[in-house]
Amino acid sequence: YKLFKKECVRNVDYMKDLHDDSIEEITNYLKQEDYEKGKIIFRAGEPVEKIYFVSNGQINISVSHKDSDIPIETLYRGCCIGSNGIVGNFNFNFTGRAITKVTLLSLHKDDLKTLNNCCDDLDKAIFERRDYFYNEINEVPYIDFRVEDNPEENRVLNVKRVVRLSIQR
């Protein structure tokens, strides 16, 4: 399970090149959260306070459109949510609901700040991407989650779905 935690952390773009001791320190801050089937994990409009890593189960990611929820992705073991939004003061642009019983590992925003102070390479990695994270013209990326297998193809498909929804409005 410890190896899985390290792999999850390394899947975050700005954490992938961190030193092993920093990765180890980050995994020490991960908290386990369990959600029953059908439970809302986060809602669109809520602040991004945590990075979530799916350990077990599945999460439906959906957007609201004309009083209905439209699913745009299903996340499963190894996927992460909120890794970009946690760095700034952003809100979720989508809702996450447990499709099955779900176990998540989470890293709270306050813990990330603590880690920035003790892990110089993490602080540097975030600093180097500050223009991306703090550009007020661009809000948090609409797709602030990562699907474990073939993420680029899935991201392109999700952007196409969002564009279609925007055109329909």
UniProtKB/TrEMBL annotation:
Annotated Cyclic nucleotide-binding domain residues: 14-115
Species of the source: Euplotes crassus
The organism's place on the tree of life at top rank: Eukaryota
Record-given protein name: Cyclic nucleotide-binding domain-containing protein
Upper lineage: Eukaryota, Sar, Alveolata, Ciliophora, Intramacronucleata
One Pfam entry name: cNMP_binding
